[in-house]
Amino acid sequence: MTEGARFLRFLAAGGASAAANAVARWLLSRVVSYELAVALAYLVGMAVAFLLMRRFVFQSGGAGNARHQAARFALVNAWSLAQVWAISVGLARVVFPAVGFDWHAETVAHLVGLGSLAVTSYVAHKRFSFRDPGAQPPEGRQGGKGGFMRPSEP
User: Fold this and answer.
1) pLDDT of 51 higher than 70
2) Residue 3: is it exposed, middle or buried by C-beta count within 10 angstroms (0-12/13-18/19+)?
3) What is the 3-state secondary structure (H, E, C) of the chain?
4) What is the pLDDT of residues 114-152, one digit of tens each?
5) Tell me, what's the pLDDT at 98?
6) Rounded to 5 degrees, what are φ and ψ at 30?
7) Does this model's pTM top 0.90?
């Protein structure tokens, strides 16, 4: 699979998981605070994303240890949750009120936060969460055993 095709699949899987996340946040906001709803909904989206990405994007459904992949995926997503939460809450509570934007402000802020992950999480999942454990670092680069870096595909 070409890198472009993989990235398009990543965007589709990410879109599906973002939709699950957004719907869960909308439902959860009816019973908990917006801030908590964003965090809880992220877990729903993360579960959907792991299943779709493992099977359809990085095609490692039968390769590697799912538990190890899930643990690495969770580490990447811990960072991503912080990124989404900071952007979503920052926009909804600080930026949008300061500029007078109030049209579905929480939903727009949350979608912007989710969209911010497109490139950062693709690289992290490709090179860390679903990396080929047998991949060697390119000549001249040090990666070490289990290191973060791996060769790029053409």
Assistant:
1) yes
2) exposed
3) CCHHHHHHHHHHHHHHHHHHHHHHHHHHCCCCCHHHHHHHHHHHHHHHHHHHHHHHHCCCCCCCCHHHHHHHHHHHHHHHHHHHHHHHHHHHHHHHHHHCCCCCHHHHHHHHHHHCHHHHHHHHHHHHHCCCCCCCCCCCCCCCCCCCCCCCCC
4) 888 888 889 999 899 988 666 655 455 454 444 444 444
5) 98
6) -75, -20
7) no
